[in-house]
């Protein structure tokens, strides 16, 4: 069961990171950070109090978590800091910022929290109206999770060997879109445009850490998807 026409607006990307003025020292040396490096330090700092499930230590106290993060962080300096160790990096400014943001959040009044929640809801609804729907064979359909995963630190489960690795930001250049041949291509520098009429996904990209493809699918409520699932069920039933 193939679709004939497919139109959508691509996927939503998390907001770009804005500099927060974080400065660090590496081996006692003041180091100027580019935007990626500062974002990595910010993400690490926000995990400073995160407890590790089933353990007495925090994530940032886990040697493997530390080693994996620092290894990825060191790669951003193009060989300047070889054999960088966790103890070589002074995270204190990042930690102070994380504490300050946490305190400011806790001091918000009920009215401020309510106002913020309303604003976030309005933004979610606006984004859903743009990215959460598509048109397939002339019928409007809902799209599943239409946002690319945000960058951040891979937490993993249990003793996952990649815990602490940094998940880089997904950009439009990383994404393949599945569209109808006559469809308008959404604004952006997309990695690739395909016309796979057999597939129910609208976008995909490679997960750098796992080396597995991630997909954005049509929602289960989409008529053509339900019809295809029913056809598969009927075929299996008749075997």
From TrEMBL:
MF terms (GO), sorted A to Z: DNA binding; DNA topoisomerase type I (single strand cut, ATP-independent) activity
GO biological process per UniProt: DNA topological change
SUPFAM superfamilies: Eukaryotic DNA topoisomerase I, N-terminal DNA-binding fragment (SSF56741)
Pfam families found in the cross-reference section: Topoisom_I_N
Membrane-traversing stretches: none
InterPro entries linked: DNA_topo_DNA_db_N_dom1, DNA_topo_DNA_db_N_dom2, TopoI_DNA-bd_euk, TopoI_DNA-bd_euk_N_sf, Topoisomerase_IB
GO cellular component, one term: chromosome
Residue ranges constituting the DNA topoisomerase I DNA binding eukaryotic-type domain according to the UniProt record: 1-218
Protein name: DNA topoisomerase I DNA binding eukaryotic-type domain-containing protein
């Amino acid at each position: 069961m193939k679709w004939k026409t497919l139109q959508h607006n691509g996927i939503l990307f998390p907001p770009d990171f804005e500099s927060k003025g974080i400065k660090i020292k590496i081996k006692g040396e003041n180091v100027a950070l580019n935007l990626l490096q500062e974002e990595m330090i910010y993400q690490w700092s926000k995990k400073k109090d995160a407890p590790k499930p089933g353990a007495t230590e925090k994530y940032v106290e886990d040697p493997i978590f530390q080693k994996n993060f620092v290894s990825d962080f060191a790669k951003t300096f193009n060989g300047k800091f070889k054999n960088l160790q966790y103890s070589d990096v002074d995270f204190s400014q990042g930690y102070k910022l994380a504490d300050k943001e946490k305190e400011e959040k806790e001091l918000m009044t009920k009215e401020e929290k309510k106002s913020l929640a309303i604003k976030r809801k309005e933004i979610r609804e606006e984004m859903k109206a743009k990215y959460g729907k598509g048109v397939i064979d002339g019928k409007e359909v809902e799209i599943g999770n239409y946002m690319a995963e945000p960058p951040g630190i891979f937490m993993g489960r249990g003793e996952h060997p990649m815990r602490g690795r940094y998940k880089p930001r997904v950009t439009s250049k990383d994404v393949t879109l599945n569209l109808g041949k006559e469809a308008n291509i959404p604004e952006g520098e997309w990695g690739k445009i395909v016309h796979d009429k057999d597939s129910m996904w609208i976008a995909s990209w490679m997960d750098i850490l796992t080396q597995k493809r991630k997909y954005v699918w049509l929602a289960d409520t989409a008529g053509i998807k339900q019809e295809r699932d029913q056809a598969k069920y009927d075929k299996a039933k008749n075997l």
